[in-house]
Amino acid sequence: MSFDKQQNQKTNRQIKLASRPTGEPKAENFDMVTSDIPSPNNNEMLLRTVYLSLDPYMRGRMSDAKSYADPLEVGDVMMGGWNGCPSR
Known about the structure:
Shape: elongated
CATH architecture: Alpha-Beta Complex
CATH superfamily: Medium-chain alcohol dehydrogenases, catalytic domain
Largest sheet: 2 strands, antiparallel
Oligomer: single chain
Mean pLDDT: 82
Number of helices: 1
CATH class: Alpha Beta
Strand order of the largest sheet: 1-2
Distance between the termini: 29 Å
Order of helices and strands: EEH
Helix content: under 10%
Low-confidence stretches: none
Strand content: 15-25%
Radius of gyration: 15 Å
CATH topology: Quinone Oxidoreductase, Chain A, domain 1
């Protein structure tokens, strides 16, 4: 999966769970979907994510086993956390 070739200011990219991993996650467990960037409605804002943390707890979210966090469904967008922005 290459992100740099598809990166531009007009494309929204999402990484989706394509299948539940058995053992270590592999590239085929994920799909990258691109779409046009949506326009915000009234009282909404559009943010550009520059840094995104994909934490180890996401391993449990990819499984449908009972856990403290609800599992993702196959086809769901992988979730990540924003950890702040470095000073420029």
